[in-house]
């Protein structure tokens, strides 16, 4: 078998066999196939695409390039949730304890933030003492004890994905749906969960900018899970404005706590109830999503969810008192209030722009080696469709270093567009993709 023949076959738009894809991925991972040939293959996939079967073979080959995690020692059906990334996306911090409180084991591996998107691990590390570097035995023990654990991904998990992603990043082939889908699903499936709920973001602050592409990506990932016998569903959700109100690590931890206390933003709560309900259905805790949603709300109302959060934090070495005392979290030195200069309605919010501004303040990183300032960020007080008056507060900047206060305020205000006419509030969820097909909302 020759690499050049496989590249040529894909360039001609023909379907590759499983052993051909396995030959490519293992050869590249072992250093036997050079970057220039793998670049040619990635470009051929970019232009010619892959069938669902090919994408499943690709995913399985990437999984086989490294270690997999055996979670069979965890009791019950293990559930994971993955978001494709956005701004203010605090769902994991809410869902892990909430779904665990309902009796489903949540065994989750998460990543760090990069660019305008936040990372779950960075948010959790804002909690004093919280440990994300768990070994397999600790991870399994915590899930069996508290029903929820979150840890960082190891370098040995799907290592071919890391090599492929670095290559795609410099060859303009990142935005290939089969390559994106196999990248995401290889890590999720290698992590050992029995079922996966995907939150595919769409819009300005998302990686996928159009609903059409987002539905295609969701279908591809659900297809991979189905081919590999893992129950997988995917929601397509809005990221044309930040989810919730907080952007930044400590700020998002506080928002998650408030949500579990029943006082969080409506959009964050609504999305968590929808995602959580599907997690419980896959875990076979409840037969219907409607029944599961009712139970999740009850767990918030009766205090069970917030108690589970305390257990979750303590089990991973964190200080559970942050639930009652937000001063224990890193805080910014200064607050800058951003006010509207007109009367009217918020017609648009630039999610990516606000995420990038939060990164510049120190809440995120432009490259993997950048440090994180857990205390800084942005809180949004007005969302799309809300009415504003001149001089009314639309956002607050939490900052530690101020170069030019007026420039920062104007930079934030420029991310809001106002209209004299009432603007319709956007949908939060556009649809659900399952192995049976697409249900548009």
From TrEMBL:
Limits of the Pyrimidine nucleoside phosphorylase C-terminal domain: 345-419
Biological process per Gene Ontology, one example term: pyrimidine nucleoside metabolic process
Presence of the UniProt keyword Transferase in the record: yes
InterPro entries the record matches: Glycosyl_Trfase_fam3, Glycosyl_Trfase_fam3_N_dom, Glycosyl_Trfase_fam3_N_dom_sf, Nuc_phospho_transferase, PYNP-like_C_sf, PYNP_C, Pyrmidine_PPas_bac/euk, Pyrmidine_PPase_CS
Keyword line: Glycosyltransferase, Transferase
Xref: Gene3D superfamilies: Nucleoside phosphorylase/phosphoribosyltransferase catalytic domain, Pyrimidine nucleoside phosphorylase-like, C-terminal domain, Transferase, Pyrimidine Nucleoside Phosphorylase, Chain C
Molecular function via GO: 1,4-alpha-oligoglucan phosphorylase activity; thymidine phosphorylase activity
Entry's family note: Belongs to the thymidine/pyrimidine-nucleoside phosphorylase family.
Job description of the protein: Catalyzes phosphorolysis of the pyrimidine nucleosides uridine, thymidine and 2'-deoxyuridine with the formation of the corresponding pyrimidine base and ribose-1-phosphate.
Subunit structure: Homodimer.
Protein name: Pyrimidine-nucleoside phosphorylase
Species in which this protein is naturally found: Alkalicella caledoniensis
Top-level taxonomy: Bacteria, Bacillati, Bacillota, Clostridia, Eubacteriales
